[in-house]
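hey m, so remember when u said the tokens were messed up on ur end? i reran from scratch. heres the input so u can diff it against urs
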Amino acid sequence: MMTLFGLVSFVFQTYEFLLLFRIVLTWLPHNANHPIIQFLHKITDPYLDLFRSLPLSFNGLDLSPVVAFFVLGLLKQLALRMIF
């Protein structure tokens, strides 16, 4: 049986993996109409859009995913500390 700590950790790790997969897809050619890709966009774009609206581009390099991962890590630590 999974503890609450383990469940919250699993949820955050899964979302981190989905974000990473979504970001890697931007570098690779893919079929944007594939149902799995559309699901991935639906799940990750609302969170990434929070950071895309900030001025986080420097010389054509978009740093919003880096900030998104950093904030997600902080939220994970906060959530796990509240449980533990």
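this time it looks ok to me. Helices lie at 4-25, 35-52, 64-83. if urs says something different then somethings off w ur setup not the seq
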